[in-house]
Specification:
This protein has 14 helices and five strands. It folds into two domains: 12-190 and 303-332, HUPs (Rossmann fold, 3-Layer(aba) Sandwich); 210-296, Tyrosyl-Transfer RNA Synthetase (Orthogonal Bundle), CATH 1.10.240. 55% of the residues lie in helices and 6% in strands. The structure holds tryptophanyl-5'AMP. Tryptophanyl-5'AMP is lined by residues 14-18, 26-27, 30-31, 49, 52, 139, 142-143, 151, 153-154, 156-157, 160, 191-193, 202-203.
């Protein structure tokens, strides 16, 4: 995106994703698919949030591979870096700088209430580090640096968006208008894709049971196997209903992919059993992911192209974000260089 474009009245969108292994179907349906669609109508900026990922321990070799894979996978999903600058968070030092500043305008109490912090500190009880705790201030920095109007995320990130708004409001309240207040963009379908093994919990790559989640790079036969094993109920009627979390989830997935409503899907599968339905959902997912997997295989071989794009993305991001950082620091009273 040329710099002049960002001055247009088009709204600004920013979002990011952690490079913690391959992305899941939840990441794709809840976030990435929307990012791709929003590119035409907004000034979009996307990032691989590698700084966020070290709040849990990473193996250096695997981490490095995951970051590059994540970048390539974003492009494979349809992010066009020529249109939507896409960068790697750690390449742009303003993020860590503003995060420190915002930490000083974020309350211990509000961070303590974050559900993700509570969950992760239980899961990683041996490593409840300060970064895990202040994670939302870094995320607020990611968003506020670009004056993002909207942040497309899945439902699980809503609380982090609220705290980003609160931090921005607090700062603006003290120093006058500095940050734009971001709105979450949470689509009505796909915002909460559930585990295939325990459909009362969200699909997450940190689930030890790999049958619970589908990775974007899973082979077709693996995807089919995971869907055939998906937990359902004993009613054996394909319809949305209470106590039918598994089927509700599968109907939701089918609905996002095919664009059909739940009612249409229920009609399509009238008189058919769960076996047929699970196979159909699996096939729809396989077909949706096939072109992404093919593009990924090509992109990941082309390291020069990836490097060219993430460097360009970082240069753009630094230029834009430096202005916001300087503005905020000036207001606080720092002496700018
Ligand atoms: P992350 O990496 O956990 O997830 C990336 C995106 O995927 C969405 N998502 C889901 N959506 C629906 N169903 C699911 N089961 C599911 N699982 C994940 C998430 O809501 C998210 O939109 N903190 C963020 C990354 C981040 C960020 C930011 C996001 C860092 N800086 C600035 C927005 C703006 C995270 O850990 O997402």
């Amino acid at each position: 995106m040329p710099e002049t474009e960002i001055k247009e009245k088009k709204k600004i969108i920013l979002s990011a994703i952690q490079p913690s292994g391959t992305f899941t179907l939840g990441n794709y349906l809840g976030a990435l698919r929307n990012w791709v669609r929003l590119q035409d109508d907004y000034n979009c900026i996307f990032a691989v949030a590698d700084l966020h990922a070290i709040t849990v321990r990473q193996d250096p070799k695997v981490f490095k591979k995951n970051i590059l894979d994540a970048y390539a996978l974003l492009l494979a999903c349809g992010i066009d870096p020529e249109k939507s600058p896409t960068f790697i968070q750690s390449h742009v030092p303003t993020h860590a700088q503003l995060a420190w500043v915002l930490n000083c305008y974020t309350q211990f109490g509000e961070l303590s209430r974050m559900t993700q912090f509570k969950d992760k500190s239980q899961k990683h009880a041996d490593n409840v580090n300060a970064g895990l705790f202040t994670y939302p201030s870094l995320m607020a920095a990611d968003i506020l640096l670009y004056k993002a109007d909207m942040v497309p995320v899945g439902a699980d990130q809503k609380q982090h968006l609220e705290i980003a708004r609160n931090i921005a409001e607090r700062f603006n309240g003290i120093y006058g208008n500095t940050f734009t207040l971001p709105e979450p963009y949470i689509a009505s379908t796909g915002a909460r894709v559930m585990s295939l093994q325990d459909p009362t919990r969200k699909m997450s790559k940190s689930d030890e049971n790999t049958n619970a989640w589908v990775a974007l790079l899973d082979k077709p036969e693996t995807i089919m196997k995971k869907f055939r094993r998906a937990v359902t109920d004993s009613e054996a009627v394909v319809r949305v209903g209470e106590g039918k979390d598994g089927i509700n989830n599968l109907i939701g997935i089918m609905s996002v992919i095919t664009g059909k409503t739940s009612e249409e899907i229920e009609k399509d599968f009238e008189g058919k059993g769960y076996g047929d339905f699970k196979t159909a959902v699996g096939e729809a997912v396989v077909e949706e992911l096939r072109p992404i997997q093919q593009r990924f295989d090509e992109l990941i071989k082309n390291k020069d192209y990836l490097e060219e794009q993430y460097k360009k993305g970082a240069e753009f991001a630094l230029r834009i974000s430096q202005r916001t950082l300087d503005k905020a620091m000036k207001k606080i009273g720092f002496v700018l260089r």
